[in-house]
């Protein structure tokens, strides 16, 4: 089925997908496919590498790990702190996932129909564990059929298309989605606030709303996850994830 992690921009939906993709790579022998429609393949790969390394290694020149990684790959030798003793080993482990095709990060401009066919193709020819799409509201239909008169109906058709693919293949499809601008606090996390909602709330098996408290300049650097829908499971639930 479809699992959706929804948030406002900058509240962690892409980082959540990256974390899940790496977890699945570590726990399952198959291949993970991550289709990014917003950020470049290089940017998402950098996020995934940083997540895999799971330590603070930025040098004095940089404020964040990702800036340090960019400097490192540009040949700036002092970008990585000398104390990061496992950096080379962990980096090698990460790129082994990519070289062995365990983790496949792909920048995509495919329309929804082509994406669906690509997933079917991969399912038939590869050992696929999961498919990620970041994010659903950036998808468009190639052919706008009769009865589709606005963007909301187009998103509904896209959701149904992907739901059918998930059912046919048995693969988990894990998608990011955006809330609309009315969501200004974690209390406002609600399925009805999904941007261009269409039938997102009807077709998904799981919907998790996310709010990054760090954006509120809260002392607690954490992301709140709230279950908004869970077909076959508890419809309520809340988690607080440490955010670094």
Itemize the secondary structure elements and their pairings.
Elements: E1 2-7, H1 13-27, E2 31-36, H2 41-53, H3 65-73, H4 87-99, E3 103-107, H5 112-125, E4 128-134, H6 151-169, E5 173-178, H7 200-203, E6 206-212, E7 222-230, E8 238-242
Parallel strand pairs: 1-5, 1-6, 2-3, 2-4, 4-5
Antiparallel strand pairs: 6-7, 7-8
Helix pairs in contact: 1-2, 5-6
Largest beta sheet, briefly? 8 strands, mixed
**Helix/strand structural class:** alpha/beta
Low-confidence stretches: none
In DSSP terms (H or I, runs of 4 or more residues), the helix count works out at 7
Q: How many beta-strand runs?
A: 8
Apparent shape: globular
Percent range for β-strand residues: 15-25%
Strand order of the largest sheet: 3-2-4-5-1-6-7-8
Order of helices and strands: EHEHHHEHEHEHEEE
- Helix share of residues? 25-40%
For the CA atoms, what is the radius of gyration? Answer: 19 Å
């Amino acid at each position: 089925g479809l699992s959706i992690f929804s948030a406002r921009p900058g509240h962690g939906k892409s980082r959540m997908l990256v974390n899940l993709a790496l977890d699945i790579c570590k726990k399952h022998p198959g291949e993970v496919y991550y289709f990014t429609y917003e950020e470049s393949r290089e940017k998402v790969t950098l996020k995934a590498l940083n997540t895999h390394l799971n330590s603070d290694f930025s040098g004095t020149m940089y404020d964040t790990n990702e800036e340090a990684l960019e400097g490192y790959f540009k040949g700036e030798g002092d970008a990585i702190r000398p104390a990061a003793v496992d950096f080379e080993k962990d980096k090698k482990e990460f790129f082994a996932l990519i070289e062995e095709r365990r983790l496949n990060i792909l920048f995509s401009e495919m329309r929804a129909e082509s994406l669906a066919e690509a997933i079917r193709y991969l399912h038939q020819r590869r050992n696929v564990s999961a498919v990620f799409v970041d994010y659903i509201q950036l998808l468009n239909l190639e052919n706008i059929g009769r009865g589709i008169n606005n963007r909301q109906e187009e998103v509904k058709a896209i959701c149904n298309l992907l739901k059918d693919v998930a059912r046919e293949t048995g693969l988990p499809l894990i998608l990011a989605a955006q809330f609309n601008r009315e969501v200004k606090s974690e209390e406002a996390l609600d399925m009805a606030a999904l941007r261009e909602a269409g039938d997102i709330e009807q077709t998904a098996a799981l919907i998790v709303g996310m709010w990054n408290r760090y954006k509120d300049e809260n002392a607690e650097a954490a992301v709140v996850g709230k279950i908004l829908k869970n077909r076959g499971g508890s419809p309520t639930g809340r988690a607080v994830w440490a955010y670094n």
